[in-house]
Amino acid sequence: MGITSVGVFSEKSKRARIIKNILLFAVIALPASVQLFQDKILFLLIVSCVYTIFFAFIFYQIFFFLINPVVFSTDVLSAAGCGFLLLIEVFAFLFQFLFYKNPECLNIELTQNASVNFTNLVYFVTVSLTTIGFGDIAPTAHYTKLITALMGLIGTFYTVVLTGILISNFAPNLIKNKKE
Q1: How confident is the model at residue 126 (pLDDT cuts 50, 70, 90)?
Q2: Which of 102, 131, 140, 162 is 20 to 30 A from 39, alpha carbon to alpha carbon?
Q3: Rounded CA gap, 94 and 55, in Å?
Q4: What pLDDT, on a 0 to 100 scale, did the predictor assign at position 165?
């Protein structure tokens, strides 16, 4: 997802392209350098931090594309879906960072399999971001409770903004069709 997201920066400022290139290098180099790290937890903390920043930066670019679209097209709809998936990734990597720093911050067990841990975190973030909240995984530390609450608010805000954008682009066509 990180490599395919670089198209967002094709017409951006020089500063944005430099930041994108640095983050893209880190996103590619970190998985390739896994053998250099003896401490797997430290490696996962670093990866989680870099990926959180990378996906947050891409989400920022997409969000401003959605707020000010030049023309309403399928690109806007694709960006809307990608934006929601990027929010899931940002918070999943943020919670992965917090979880490896303190496994007691959520009521799930730390396993030796990093992909199982990440899958559990993606599930928790998706359920929380969409405000479903089954309750099978819950935050236990105060800071994770606050971040989870913030995540729910951001998910709701994103949905409201997205709905407003879609309605504002379809409403003129509906009014025009009723007058004819």
Answers
A1: very high
A2: 140
A3: 10
A4: 79
pLDDT in tens, 52-96: 998 898 888 888 888 877 677 777 778 888 889 999 999 999 999
Q: What token pair was written down for 15? A: 């500063």
Domain 4-170 has CATH 1.10.287.70: yes
Specify the length of the chain in residues.
Answer: 180
Count Cβ atoms within 10 A of the Cβ of residue 130 and give its class: 0-12 exposed, 13-18 middle, 19 or more buried: middle
Q: Which residues contact 10 (CB under 8 A, 6 or more apart)?
A: none
Closest by CA position to 134, among listed 101, 168, 97, 108: 108
Contact 128, 154 (CB under 8 A): no
Q: Is the pTM of this model over 0.85?
A: no
pLDDT at 1: 52
pLDDT of residue 25: 84
Neighbours of 11 (CB within 10 A): 8
The closest of 55, 2, 57, 62 to 29, measured between CA atoms, is 2
